[in-house]
Amino acid sequence: MRASERAPDQAREDGRVPRVLLLPSLRRLRQTRWLTLLVEIALLALGIVAMRSIMVATARLPNGDVAEYYTYALNFWTGHPIFTALPTEYPPLAILPFSFTLLPPLPDYQSVFSWWAAAAVIVGYLGFLRFGDRRRALAYFVYLVVGSAGTLVARFDIFPALVTLAAFWALERRHYAGAYLLLALGVLLKLYPIFLLPLPLIAQWQALHATARAAGRIEEATTRRRWPIGRLTGWLRATLRSPATWRVVEGGVIFFGAVGLGFALAFILNPAGALTEFTYASARPLQVESTPATFLWLGTLFGIPAHPDFSFVSLNYVGPLDVALKPLSTLALAAGCVWVYWRFARGRLTLAQAFLATLSVVVVANKIFSPQYLIWITPFVAEVFGFDALWLLICGLTTLIFPYLYGIRNPIQTVTYDWAFMPVVAIRNLLLLSFTLRAILSAEPSRLADVRADMRPGMRADLDAGVRPANAATEARGSAPAPDDT
């Protein structure tokens, strides 16, 4: 008997199953997994269709935004001259998701865009399955359906939100160059990811600095100088000599180079329209759902006048107090972001918490708060908290506000005079403010303790020394840190 014929018998005697006999079982297992995934995707698609059908049947959904996207895309690709009709209130690359209204070129461009937006939602779900877990993926989907039912497939915000989420996943795995490029793409789609830029800079510097320090390649800052100016100069000298500092500078160059290139191309195509989104945003008054507008409304309870104003294709709230509330809003936004950066740099927040807290500050402190802005935050709520009762309540109130409370009065300028509208907005904003404070101040001690227990001794020492916990979390999940590709 030949050796090849004796092998299966010998394997059975040894209690081992030959690989050739396992192949059919492995194939059936893979087929079952693919079939399960396809069924899962089909159920998600049905959920989105049901959500949209309910919204259409129970609320008077306006379609102005998608019509505007269609007009921009049509003028950009077919206008005379072509490639010059850039969006007025959006960054230049927003024209890319707007162009989904033309693909395929069907008369019902509203439905066409909804299909693309629904596909993007499912791509985000698959991303959570790949880089997270099913519990977070389900939380992500439920939050979107509950909190953004009126805007999810009728606005383009899901596209920059997923780009920002991809930047987080890249950064978590130390693909720094990819993270900077993705953040730059997000800024060119919608400006808000610019507030996240300090997070990858801090994260990269901490990771590289810890590695260089462990290898003895950097000079530690002296802490023995008596005077504060001496300690500061010592720290600056050590920081400038650290190789991590210059790698972070390279990352910043990548980000600003990509953003600058995008706006430069827009300027070449249309010099007059390349930067209109900045002047447009700065000229806008307080949007009626924003937190500053809530304070403006509260002032009316004490006799300070304020009234609704429909301008900039939005319902706004204006009054004597807005002269002070606008700069205070900007100050609160800047102070809140700096607070998050500081806590992240001190190791008080994980990377996911820092992303969540920064975006929450941007939304709650901004002078503009449209219902679709919840889409920016939702993926990171799922990443940090999974299912969270407070966020579900915020989501439910947001959908109650739009489209339902917006639709109780016609014309829209009169909706603020309804007894329910402004109080519900105020309650939602108060809950969002409390959620933001929780996101900034929560430390997730149990999760960090689990991560610390699974880490190698060297990584544990880095964590105790103040290295970013997000790096440790990546190591603990078993993902080998990728080389710095900046």
Walkthrough of the structure:
The chain folds into 2 domains: 60-268, no CATH class; 284-443, no CATH class. The protein contains 21 helices and 2 strands. Strand 1 (307-311) and strand 2 form a beta hairpin. The longest helix has 40 residues, at 19-58. With 486 residues, it is mostly helical. The chain is globular. Helix content is 67%, strand content 2%. 41% of the residues are buried. It has a two-stranded antiparallel ribbon with strand order 1-2. The chain has helices at 3-13, 19-58, 64-78, 95-98, 109-131, 134-147, 158-172, 176-189, 198-214, 228-241, 243-269, 276-283, 291-300, 322-345, 351-365, 374-385, 389-404, 421-441, 445-454, 457-464, 469-476; strands spanning 307-311, 314-318.
| Average pLDDT, all residues | 86
* Sheet/helix structural class: mainly alpha
- Biggest sheet strand line-up: 1-2
H-E order: HHHHHHHHHHHHHEEHHHHHHHH
Identify low-pLDDT runs.
1-5, 445-486
Largest sheet properties: 2 strands, antiparallel
Helix percentage: 55-70%
Computed CA radius of gyration, to the nearest angstrom: 26 Å
Q: Give the tally of β-strands.
A: 2
Strand content: under 5%
- Enumerate how many helices there are, as a single number: 21
Shape assignment? globular
Query: How many structural domains in the coordinates?
Result: 2
Distance between the termini: 59 Å
